[in-house]
Amino acid sequence: MGTKGDNNRARIVEAADQLFYKRGYNQTSFSDIADITGIPRGNFYYYFKTKDEILSAVVDARVKQYQAALNDCDKASDDPRERLLAFADMLSSNEDTIVESGCPIGTLCSELAKGNGTLQSKSREVFEVVRDWLAKQFAELGFDDADDRAMDMLARMQGVSVISSAFKDSAYLKRSINDLKVWINGLTLN
Amino acid sequence: MGTKGDNNRARIVEAADQLFYKRGYNQTSFSDIADITGIPRGNFYYYFKTKDEILSAVVDARVKQYQAALNDCDKASDDPRERLLAFADMLSSNEDTIVESGCPIGTLCSELAKGNGTLQSKSREVFEVVRDWLAKQFAELGFDDADDRAMDMLARMQGVSVISSAFKDSAYLKRSINDLKVWINGLTLN
DNA sequence: GTCTATATGTAGATAGAC
DNA sequence: GTCTATCTACATATAGAC
Question: Residue B87 burial (CB < 10 Å; 0-12/13-18/19+)?
Answer without folding.
Answer: buried
